[in-house]
Amino acid sequence: MDRPNSRKIHRSPIPLMGGAAIYIATIVSLLVFVGLTRMSLAIISGGLILVVVGMVDDYAKSKGEDFPVMPRVIAYLFVAMLPLWFGIRIDGVSNLGEGGMLLFPQWLSWGSTVIWVFALINMINFIDGVDGLASGISTLSAFTLFLTALVKGQPDIAILAVILGGSCIGFLVFNFHPARIFMGDAGATFIGYSLAVIAVGGAFKSATFLTMVVPLLALGMPIMDTVIVMLRRLMTGKGLHQADKLHSHHLLMRWGLNQIQTVSFLYLIAAVFCLLSILLLIWTG
After folding, report:
1. Strand partners of residue 103
2. Does residue 122 or residue 248 have the better pLDDT?
3. What is the DSSP letter of 190?
4. Phi-psi region of 68 (alpha: psi -120 to 50; beta: other; left: phi over 0)
5. Contact 165, 181 (CB under 8 A)
6. DSSP labels, 29-94
7. N or C: which end of the chain has fewer CB within 10 A?
8. Rounded to 5 degrees, what angle do the CA atoms 100, 103, 105 make?
9. Angle subtended at Cα 84 by Cα 82 and Cα 90, rounded to the nearest 5 degrees
10. Of 154, 156, 165, nearest to 34 (Cα)?
């Protein structure tokens, strides 16, 4: 149970096991409709580690305690490197002038992949502060990656994206305000990791310098929120890892919006980012 405190919005304990449900729904669907591929194995294995670590963190929350930051960071870094083991990485960009591929050196390929995955694991976790926000934004991002994969002729990636989006929608039914269950760190980190891996395997594949922006726009809302929060923490001298009430949803609610209005407004921002990513992909295609 996620117990209320001075930083949280809810006023009564809420179950925290939603992340396990999202993981199980996603993995069962992957096994049924995709089978064991490099992509599905990366999501299954990395997701399992994140869900276990997240549930330990969520258990600490249920006791009114905070799980130490460093073990989580180490686990997230390890999981961020897992896609490389399965051959999933950002290889380079298409060279439009010569019709070939401009390959990144290995250090850049591996480094950019790890940074991207690690960042998304945390970004989705950061926006999980209002009923239905993280699950709704993740749904929009997943279906944008689904449409991107269809446009790029990647049916295997499209199936992965729509499965993740479907799991998020199923959870959103119970997570929209007033939430009956939370996804917790287990669910937020798993969704962030899965979105990152799907983007690397799909939207980043054979991307040009311009279309490299497509996955960034598809996940534009959590990226924007994280950048703003990090800048505010730096300006106020706070630690980058310290939880606070500087996120966009906290500020909107301080301005007088209720939870549904706040989430709806941020859904709109995310939808605009997603639409821009699709338009950019179609325009450059």
Report:
1. 92
2. 122
3. H
4. beta
5. no
6. HHHHHT-S-HHHHHHHHHHHHHHHHHHHHHHHHHTT----HHHHHHHHHHHHHHHHHTT----EEE
7. C
8. 165
9. 125
10. 156
Q: Count the neighbouring beta carbons within 10 Å of the beta carbon of residue 72.
A: 21
| Model confidence at 116: pLDDT above 80 | yes
Cα 88 from Cα 210, distance rounded (Å): 21
- Residue 130 amino acid letter: V
Mean pLDDT of 110-115: 96
Distances (CA, A) of 38 to 17, 92, 160, 168, 180: 28, 19, 12, 22, 35
Q: In the numeric block, which tokens belong to residue 95? A: 């060279």
Pairing status of strand 92-95 against strand 100-103: antiparallel
Cβ atoms of residues 187 and 19 within 8 Å: yes
| Residue appearing with tokens 């299954």 | 44
Query: For the segment 14-54, what is each residue's pLDDT rounded down to a tens digit?
Result: 888 899 999 999 999 999 999 999 999 999 999 999 999 99
Does the reported pTM lie above 0.85? yes
Task: Report the Cα–Cα distance between both ends of the chain, in Å, rounded.
Answer: 48
Sign for the pseudo-dihedral over CA of 266, 271, 277, 279: negative
Read off the tokens for 78.
């390890």
Phi, psi of 100 (to 5 degrees): -105, -150
Higher per-residue confidence, 35 vs 233: 35
Write down the mean pLDDT value for the chain.
88
* CA gap 27, 22 in Å, rounded: 9
Average pLDDT over residues 186-197: 96
Phi first, then psi, for residue 2 (nearest 5°) are: -85, 110
